[in-house]
Task: inverse folding
């Protein structure tokens, strides 16, 4: 089974909401049938909107850091939630 990686912490509630929805929508009859998921909840990633609309810090290096961390943990695909 493939492992999902969640680049999270932007904000933490969006991350937990996505994780909960994946659990609720997975047709699992027992715990062992759920999708393996690794979450990097890193709330220090700079605000993307501030970067796009003004002189806010670039979040890209932080996103790359998170993606590399998840990749090294063996994830097959990434998700990045946002509310």
Result:
């Amino acid at each position: 089974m493939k492992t999902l990686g969640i680049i999270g912490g932007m904000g933490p509630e969006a991350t937990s909401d996505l994780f909960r929805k994946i659990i609720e929508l997975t047709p699992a009859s027992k715990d062992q049938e759920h999708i393996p998921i690794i979450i990097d909840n890193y709330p220090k990633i700079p605000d993307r909107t501030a970067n796009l609309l003004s002189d806010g810090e670039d979040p890209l290096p932080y996103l790359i850091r998170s993606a590399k961390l998840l990749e090294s943990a063996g994830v097959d695909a990434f998700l990045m939630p946002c509310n």
